């Protein structure tokens, strides 16, 4: 167990809908990272937050947004969902602002129908 | 952006065998990492290794930054080593946190 929790484990929704994925980092970790893993795109870095502030941005669509709250948990919001958004979404946390170690949650599997 | 290529794409080993996985990257990097995704989907960070050599038990990794490649060595493989191995890198001017992943090496270790 990495100490990183993600909810929900599975999510099935329809095109055009909006969903929120939640991540609780390991105790003491200030950085949260979001990744998407799909058959088409492979593993992709989406975004990093460090102590409540956006720190790095990757291939995150404009329809997606994230935030990190004062208690350090993070939420990834996906809107106007398309079939191609179906994927496994991982959250990871790490102790530092610079990424030299990270611990992954079990992922949320999103299916858009 | 940076290109990260891994080889071989697939590998089947007998338990106890050794193997070498390779990762080539197209630019100078300030971050290079190896990950293992087990057959149940769990991702584990194996090494942070932008240069040099590190060892952790039966696993070791070497990155030759000047020649833009990294190697992951698995010795005395076990069935629990099965899964997909990814390397990921960020370019020297990228801040270090925007990892680009390779497509992975799918490893199966058989009895």
How many strands appear in the DSSP assignment of chain A? Answer: 11
Based on Cα principal axes, name the global outline of chain B: globular
Tell me which oligomeric state these chains represent.
Answer: heterodimer
Helix-strand pattern of chain B: EEEEEEEEEEE
- Helix % of chain A is under 10%
Please characterize this protein's 3D structure.
The complex is a heterodimer of chains A (113) and B (111). With 113 residues, chain A is mostly beta strands. Chain A has no helices and eleven strands. Helices cover 0% and strands 53% of the residues of chain A. The radius of gyration of chain A is 13 Å and the shape is globular. Chain A starts with a strand and ends with a strand. Chain B is mainly beta and 111 residues long. In chain B, the strands form two sheets. In chain B, strands 2, 4, 5, 9, 10 and 11 form a six-stranded mixed beta sheet that branches. Chain B is globular. The model of chain B has no long low-confidence stretch (mean pLDDT 95). Chains A and B meet through strand 5, strand 6, strand 9 and strand 10 of A and strand 5, strand 9 and strand 10 of B.
Can I get a quick summary?
Helices cover 0% and strands 53% of the residues of chain A.
SSE map:
The complex is a heterodimer of chains A (113) and B (111).
Chain A: E1 5-7, E2 10-13, E3 19-24, E4 31-38, E5 42-50, E6 53-57, E7 64-68, E8 74-78, E9 87-94, E10 103-104, E11 108-112
Parallel strand pairs in A: 2-11
Antiparallel strand pairs in A: 1-3, 3-8, 4-5, 4-9, 5-6, 7-8, 9-10, 9-11
Chain B: E1 4-7, E2 10-14, E3 19-25, E4 29-37, E5 43-48, E6 52-56, E7 59-64, E8 69-74, E9 83-91, E10 100-101, E11 105-110
Parallel strand pairs in B: 2-11
Antiparallel strand pairs in B: 1-3, 3-8, 4-5, 4-9, 6-7, 7-8, 9-10, 9-11
């Amino acid at each position: 167990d990495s100490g990183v929790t993600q909810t929900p484990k599975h999510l099935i929704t329809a095109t055009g809908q909006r969903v929120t994925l939640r991540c609780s980092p390991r105790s003491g970790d200030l950085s949260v990272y979001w990744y998407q893993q799909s058959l088409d795109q492979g593993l992709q870095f989406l975004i990093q937050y460090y102590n409540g502030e956006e720190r790095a941005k990757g291939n995150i669509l404009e329809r997606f947004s994230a935030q990190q709250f004062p208690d350090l948990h993070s939420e990834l919001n996906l809107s106007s969902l398309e079939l191609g958004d179906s994927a496994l979404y991982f959250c990871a946390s790490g102790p530092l602002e610079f990424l030299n170690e990270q611990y992954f949650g079990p992922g949320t599997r999103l299916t858009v129908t | 952006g940076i290109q990260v290529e891994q080889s071989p794409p697939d590998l089947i080993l007998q338990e106890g065998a050794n193997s070498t996985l390779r990762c080539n990257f197209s630019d100078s990097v300030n971050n290079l990492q190896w990950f293992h995704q087990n057959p149940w989907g769990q991702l584990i960070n194996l090494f942070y290794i932008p240069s040099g050599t590190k060892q952790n038990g039966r696993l070791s990794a070497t990155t030759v930054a000047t020649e833009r490649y990294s190697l992951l060595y698995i010795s005395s493989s076990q069935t629990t080593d099965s899964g997909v191995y990814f390397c990921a890198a960020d370019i020297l001017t990228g801040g270090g946190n925007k990892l680009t992943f390779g497509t992975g090496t799918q490893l199966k270790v058989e009895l």
